[in-house]
Amino acid sequence: MRRSSEDTKAAILAAARERFGADGYEKATIRAIAGDVGVDPAMVMRYFGNKEKLFAAAAHFDLRFPDLASTPREQVGTAMVGHFLDLWETSEALQVLLRTGVTNEAAAERMREIFAAQLGPLAARLCPDPATAPTRAGLAASQILGLALTRYVLRLPPVMAMTREEVVAWLGPTLQRYLTE
To answer: Distance (Å, rounded) from C-alpha 155 to C-alpha 165?
Structure first.
């Protein structure tokens, strides 16, 4: 049975996410990804151009922030920590991006783009002085990415042992301060 071009492209993206996650950016190859899908490497190149563009497509991620308009202002920090915990625990793509971003500049740039484009505007809406929004978003990202790195990549035992409620209780006030105070 032949796949449609959209099905083939989706299969390549899925295989790329898995391969980048398992092997990292440097070791993953177009040939291996094509082999995982059962297509010629030229097909991967046709759809994506090169490895960096394939990675960028595979690493596309929507942080899907909740609508915080109905969240009491004093609970924004805890709501954000809970939201990020949900994302990290359910998104292999985001974990792949974090693992790869630690060692690869293209992946790090992709992570910076995602957080700047998605967290930056949220910080601007929440903070008392929009001129400080980039700094506030950066500090919030440092907490979220630090948690993700220690809990989901490095798997540090004390951080792994924390319950969801404990993580929210520890980090919620910090994000609250960064975003609203």
So the answer is: 18
